[in-house]
Amino acid sequence: ARYRKDSYWCKDYKEKIGDDPTKHFTDEELKVRDALLVPGEEAQWCLFDPMVSAYYGKLYQKSKKPEHLKLQQLFLSRALAAITGDDCKLGPWMCCEAYCLHDDKWEPNDNTPLVWTQIDLKMALYE
Known about the structure:
By secondary structure, the protein is mostly helical. The chain has helices spanning about 15, 25-35, 50-65, 65-80, 115-125, and strands spanning about 45, 100, 105-110. It contains five helices and three strands, in the order ααβααββα.
């Protein structure tokens, strides 16, 4: 998990929490939501891999160190692998906010496509 102990979009989130992704939680409600989380079932966030790829790409351009290029390629590969496929109910070729578990299957969350992830991927490809 990218954020351990993060209950936002944890497994079967909508069934457990409701269908309003903009809901603001009180401290008490957040404690209840957090109690539903099983470690390892946190959402997998997609917007950070392309950011890290762009960072290492810029670092490699300055340093020419092979380890920076290797890390840039690793995070770019992870970012590209997160793009939705033909079987996605939200559509193919989408940049997701996160993948979350639903009925034991990793699926993009409802905030797909996410412009933030799209621009991060563009930076990773063109920086």
